[in-house]
Write a structure and sequence with these properties.
The protein is an alpha+beta fold and 177 residues long. It is built from seven helices and seven strands, in the order E-H-H-H-E-E-E-H-H-E-H-E-E-H.
C-alpha cells in the first residue's frame, strides 16, 4: 500500500474536508481544545496556514482520495511541531506512521535541519503508536500530554546529495562536445 500513498501541499480546495476531519468526535476528544471548530474560525486559520512561509501543510492521498493532513509548524527556536489528522474513514488502518514518514522526506522539512516535536495526549493510544512507528521518541512527560521528538538523519541525506552532485559533475566533465 505504501507505493499508493502520496503527499502534496494543502490548497484551498482542501479546506472543507480538513474541517470535517477536525470536527469528528475522535478528533475533538484527542485535541487539546476539545471543542468543535466553527467554519469562520477554521477558514481564518486555514488561510493563514497555507500562506505561511514557515509552516508546511500536506495532504496525504491514497490513490486519488484524500486521507489526511500533516502540519509542520515552525516555532521560535526553529524546530517543527507536527500534527496529523486522518480522515475518519482511514483511521486504525496503520496509515498514520507511513504518512508521517513520507512527509519527513519533503525537502522543506529535511532542509531545516531541525528537531520535529509532537505533543500527544497521554490517553491517545493510536497517536502514541503512530509516532513511535514514525521514529519519534519520548522526549518529556507533562501532566496532560507527552512530548515526542524526532530528528531525521541529515548526515545520510547530505552524503547522498554530495554523491549525486559529484556524479553529475563527473558526468558533465566526461561529455565530449
Amino acid at each position: 500500500m505504501k507505493n499508493l500513498l502520496s503527499i502534496r501541499k494543502a490548497n484551498y480546495s482542501d479546506e472543507a474536508e480538513i474541517l470535517n476531519w477536525r470536527n469528528s468526535q475522535q478528533s475533538i476528544r484527542n485535541s487539546f481544545g476539545q471543542k468543535k471548530i466553527n467554519k469562520l474560525e477554521h477558514k481564518e486559520w486555514f488561510l493563514r496556514a497555507i500562506k505561511s512561509n514557515n509552516d508546511h501543510h500536506y495532504i496525504a492521498m491514497l490513490k486519488n482520495e484524500k486521507i489526511g493532513i500533516v502540519s509542520f509548524q515552525l516555532n521560535k527556536n526553529k524546530n517543527f511541531f507536527v500534527s496529523i489528522n486522518l480522515n475518519p474513514k482511514y483511521r486504525n488502518k496503520k496509515l498514520g506512521s507511513k504518512v508521517l514518514l513520507l512527509t519527513q522526506k519533503k525537502r522543506e522539512i529535511r532542509e531545516k535541519n531541525n528537531l520535529i516535536f509532537a505533543r500527544i495526549k497521554s490517553n491517545n493510544i493510536a497517536s502514541l503508536k503512530t509516532f513511535n512507528k514514525a521514529n519519534f521518541k519520548l522526549f518529556r512527560k507533562y501532566q496532560n500530554y507527552l512530548l515526542f521528538c524526532c530528528k531525521i538523519n541529515y548526515a545520510k541525506i547530505n552524503e547522498k546529495r554530495k554523491q549525486y552532485h559529484q556524479k553529475e559533475k563527473n558526468h558533465r566533465s566526461n561529455r565530449s562536445y
